[in-house]
């Protein structure tokens, strides 16, 4: 057998992944998209017996119609065309455009349409599609090529003879079965009714256009009749049909375009009326004083079409446009009593300017109720929104403390949509609240005591659901100095009388009245260290059915994870019986991306492990699976690797485990260099596939393994106040354990970590000289300065991380200054003797990049070998692919030099001067 080749940096682009999967409601068809890391992907449509029906190159966002007669998909431009446009620096309007494909599944025929801007179909798509294009205004002679609506005739009469063709936006409605189309010129936004009976859209002309075309239009597809339901130039937003397609609501601002205040009004149209009527404006009874209808609020009807929900907001102050800008100060004023730091306010400015507050209009009683004011944060509704009560939460008065405690105490209310009554359910609540599907109860998790409760809204009666149970429903493995979170809600009972809740291993049923409790997995998970979770694979695009509900009499499927050997699987369970779950699959694979048909009989899912690329499979309720794809056959040409679980005991007697990756051609008579890569716990990924890809700055495990390195990924458990020592305890002892093997070269060991892993790298090299090389990405090295730093991506203070979460110090800087210094590698840089590369980028949104600078300048002052990589404008984890590719090359050159003795690249030997930036990248090893 010929020797397999190692992975090199030229192979990344060809590696593919499955980017979307779906199955038709009947289960007859499976369709999925496959994309390379760089280049053009494709869609395949197959029957459930794996017969290929059609392959469509560059397809994206496919949809199958309700009758399963047509598949519709966007077609992206070729990768090479986009690349060429970027090279030529073309304007956005000159870039290659998407097109549209309609494939007739029954007749095996397809038509391609385009270029298009976008397309839409109805929620229950049957026979129509709508899409927008930018077209040249046709001459009179060309106007017969396709039907146009009557409002466009004046446009066509003008023609384009003798002048440069002018482009206009066109909405095209196309019947899928016949191919017949009708064009609506100057159309802008558009929407189908759920039942595909109507198409609503607005027409928008230039400011000086006096044709009177502007307005909102309704097209009846069956009658082929067009009606103008709102007249005049306006900004239209949030066009919404009710579930029955009998009513349309929308927002419209008909004030002058230069008006500083956008005075949106809410309109309602009922099918059969001549035009829409203005329903709500700032003068409507029930709108608070100095408030008005928000143009950023989302409109929605309840399922019966009797209630209309919308947003209100205080009328904003406007700038004085008479002021001369350069004569006025530009200043941010920070105040210690502000709810949020100024940095957070600035990051969230756009969101906050669009914030609005829920209100409801009762269409039967014509009553408007403002449900919440501007002190509230969130609201929750049932799927139908027909019930009286909603849930609302506010952290008002408790927001400042989030800066250091990582949570906000909240008040939880039930609010009546009939009267506006507010019932206070909880005050100063540290935990979560969930509205039951029938809005009869609010289910609560208390992080302070780790218990679940149900609160009956009407009576105020409260029950501890897990009362008397010895198992914990809070995170048993929480090693941070903060309260433990729950394992979450698994599902709700379909009769709305109960709830299914996870513990660490099992799934429990609790009746909301507190009378019944049972473990539907019979505690088989806890007894066998198997983590069970319900599979919600239902393929449902109906927003009225977003809540996962369970019928007790219907058998369920669960995923399983074996904490001991890390295997995964699928089990079945009958929630109506007290029996152990039945094993269907338990194997050395990971199963993901479950979908099923409407009858929950045919399932599709992806299956992977370290050796097997994720491929798509189909089965009948997980029996007799059939493989549908083979997306990376080229892997067989390369020296791949193996993954195995390693166990040892730390110096302090703690059992420990991690993953050891070996090359496929591993020879126990040879000695191998070894790199440890770590974060917190990674062993659960023993059977996870790692594609060879330029990573955001993590270790590229398959690359190094293929090139005859050993890679070790140890789990780390932490002790409060000792994050650095905890890393020493687990990482160093794990590496020493492996070094006892003759095939490990203990003189050629290295470490690599990113972010929290980067901090641990920085700490380790101040405490030991056992590593020949180290690579740290975005490390915190000075917890005293980082404690007062900002996470620039969110604007949040970093204090909570040290007091309560990942850094695990459990004290303020002033309570235990020595603790901060002890865990800050900067103060011990004089102990470093390990060559180290630091990657820290100037647009890091999580860890201020001056942390990397502090580390580098300290090592430079001490004349220790160190390098700092700053990928200009990139983030905490590299986003730009060219930078990801670059760091993979440099990382391999660095470890090849220090662990394998290969020649050092120029950037390692002499660096790259700023005068040579963009000319010489310093990658030459000659």
Task: Outline the structure in words.
This protein has about 950 residues and is mainly beta. Helices cover about 15% and strands about 35% of the residues. It is built from 15 helices and 57 strands. The strands form 13 sheets. The chain has an eight-stranded mixed beta sheet with strand order 48-49-51-50-52-53-56-57, with helices on both faces. A five-stranded mixed beta sheet has the order 9-10-12-13-11, with no helix packed on it. Strands 22, 23, 24, 25 and 26 form a five-stranded antiparallel beta sheet that branches. Strand 2 (about 30-35) and strand 3 form a beta hairpin. Residues about 140-145 have low confidence and may be disordered.
Mean pLDDT: 95
Strand content: 35-45%
Helix content: 10-25%
Main structural class: mainly beta
What's the gyration radius in Å? 31 Å
What is this structure, in a nutshell?
This protein has 926 residues and is mainly β.
Short descriptors:
926 residues, mainly beta, 5-stranded mixed β-sheet, 57 strands
Topology:
Blueprint: E1 16-23, E2 29-36, E3 42-47, E4 52-57, E5 59-64, E6 70-75, H1 79-87, E7 98-104, E8 109-116, E9 118-120, E10 128-136, E11 147-148, H2 153-158, E12 167-175, E13 181-185, E14 187-192, E15 198-203, E16 215-220, E17 225-231, E18 235-241, E19 247-253, E20 265-270, E21 277-280, E22 291-293, E23 300-301, E24 307-314, H3 342-347, H4 349-353, E25 357-362, E26 367-370, E27 378-380, E28 389-394, H5 402-405, E29 410-416, E30 422-429, E31 431-435, E32 441-446, E33 451-456, E34 462-464, E35 489-493, E36 498-502, E37 507-511, E38 517-519, H6 524-528, E39 530-534, E40 549-550, E41 556-562, E42 568-573, E43 582-587, E44 590-596, E45 602-608, E46 615-620, E47 623-627, E48 641-649, E49 655-663, E50 672-677, H7 701-706, E51 710-714, H8 723-739, E52 744-754, H9 756-764, E53 773-777, H10 783-786, E54 790-791, E55 796-797, H11 799-803, H12 817-822, E56 836-839, H13 850-861, E57 866-869, H14 881-900, H15 906-909
Parallel strand pairs: 11-13, 35-40, 50-51, 50-52, 52-53, 53-56, 56-57
Antiparallel strand pairs: 1-2, 2-3, 3-4, 5-6, 6-7, 7-8, 9-10, 10-12, 12-13, 14-15, 15-16, 16-17, 18-19, 19-20, 20-21, 22-24, 23-24, 24-25, 25-26, 27-28, 28-29, 29-30, 31-32, 32-33, 33-34, 35-36, 36-37, 37-38, 39-41, 41-42, 42-43, 44-45, 45-46, 46-47, 48-49, 49-51, 54-55
Helix pairs in contact: 8-9
